[in-house]
Write a structure and sequence with these properties.
Blueprint: E1 5-14, E2 17-27, E3 32-36, H1 43-50, E4 58-63, E5 66-67, E6 81-84, H2 97-107, H3 112-125, H4 141-153, E7 159-163, H5 171-183, E8 187-191, H6 195-199, E9 204-209, E10 212-217, H7 223-230
Parallel strand pairs: 3-8, 3-9, 6-7, 7-8
Antiparallel strand pairs: 1-2, 1-4, 4-5, 9-10
Bound molecules: adenosine-5'-diphosphate and magnesium ion (MG).
The site of magnesium ion (MG) has 4 residues, from α1.
Length: 239
């Protein structure tokens, strides 16, 4: 199924205060974009709306080419959307890393054996297999972020929402995250005020203003984009 997010003339408020008007945004299949803006401008609110956690007040939202007119419409979409919360502690579902990463898989009905295998592969893929038996709340901020990301990615979402993913991460961990996100072949919406980071990950940057989004192309990251689209089926086959 091809992923797309289409938002038309969205307006929203919090506690009666209007945050923005006329927010219009198109995210196509496997496109990576970032949304920036000052504190309190409504970035998290916008992700919550796309994830189906908050109602739309005005405007329209389509996910995967389906109009979302009420929160009930999101039910069949939930497994397609991976939402990495700003605070990893809000994301954990079990105290031990490997149980946490496997939790949603097991809840969705996957067998214990398959969940164990997939969890091991996911931890290895993110380079955190050594954390498997650790207690999530004892990890560093960066380690927590990668464990939370593993728990989201293991469900194989088509659309990833990331809220301020570099918060509290040191430089080395930020670069690790850049590398991981560069390898993820999905539609990604990153909310951040960390420009140096998002310029390494996304193709387009949108800024939230009171009257809508201002889009700018990111010229610093042409390479990831072209790579991910030319790689398909380019490897030689041997028979
Ligand atoms: N749970 C909440 N209840 C009421 N108001 C909130 C809540 N969370 C955020 N707000 C307010 O809504 C506005 C937008 O918040 P948010 O979407 O979190 O902005 P951002 O992520 O861009 O910092 C802010 O003015 C904030 O104070
Ligand atoms: Mg926020």
């Amino acid at each position: 199924m091809s992923c797309s997010v289409t938002i038309k003339n969205l307006a929203t408020s919090r506690d009666g205060v209007r945050l923005y008007e006329n927010v219009t945004l198109d995210v196509s299949h496997k496109e990576k974009i970032a949304i920036i803006g000052p504190n309190g401008c409504g970035k998290t609110t916008l992700l919550d709306i796309i994830a189906g956690l908050r109602n739309i007040e005005e405007g329209a939202l389509e996910l995967f080419h389906q109009p979302m007119t009420s929160l009930a419409d999101f039910k069949s979409m939930r497994h397609l959307i991976g939402y990495l919360f700003q605070d990893s502690d809000n994301q954990f579902l079990a105290p031990i890393v490997e149980d946490d990463v496997a939790f949603s898989l097991l809840a969705s009905g996957v067998s214990k054996e398959e969940a164990k295998l997939k969890t091991a592969m996911m931890l290895q893929d993110l380079g955190i297999e050594h954390l498997a038996k650790k207690i999530v709340y004892h990890l560093s901020g960066g380690e927590k972020k990668l464990v939370a990301l593993a728990g989201v990615l293991i469900m194989e979402p088509k659309l990833m929402l990331l809220d301020e993913p570099t918060n509290g991460l040191d430089q080395a961990m930020q670069l690790r995250l850049v590398d991981i996100l560069g390898r993820i072949d999905k539609s990604i919406i990153i909310v951040s005020h960390h420009k140096e980071f998002i310029e390494l990950v996304v193709e387009k940057i949108y800024e939230i203003t009171p009257t809508g989004l201002i889009c700018s192309l990111n010229h610093k990251n042409g390479s990831h984009h072209h790579h991910s689209h030319t790689h398909d089926h380019s490897h030689p086959h041997t028979h």
